[in-house]
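Dear colleague,

Thank you for sharing your sequence with our group. We've completed the structure prediction you requested, and as agreed, I am returning the results in plain text so they can be pasted directly into your records. Please verify that the sequence below matches your submission; if there's any discrepancy, let me know and we will rerun it promptly.
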Amino acid sequence: MNGGTSARWNAPGTVLEARALQDSGRNAEAEPIFADLAGDAFTGIYGLFAVSARGRNVPVPQRHLTGETKACGEERDRLWARIRNADWGPADASIVRRAERLTLLGVIDFAVLEAERVDRVAARKAIGTGDGGAAGLFRYLAAT
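Please find the predicted structure tokens below.
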């Protein structure tokens, strides 16, 4: 693999091909494919699959927790309170409630789709976001 877009798009099929070779006992043919994938930064998660398939441990970075995590949670709670207490019209209020429930259920893409339906002018007045900001805010809140 030589990196770039083609490596990223071809990686899933390449991993499947190498695994099929490995499963059929053709390790000598699978190994160079896994080595290429494992050494290519553009293959993302499939490069990690290749590392694992070669019998190596996937390195997991260790991070020490700081007070930042707590501060992010507090900020998220403040933003949710701001959204809940905003002066929404009846139609937008039901959309916002539905988007919040979807976010809490972990169905982020649908929550964002719902939030995109909020009237842009109403969102600007209620929570101070610009055009399309309500959907972005829901995506941000879901990720924190």
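Summary note from our side: The chain has two domains: 5-53, 67-143.

Kind regards,
the structure core
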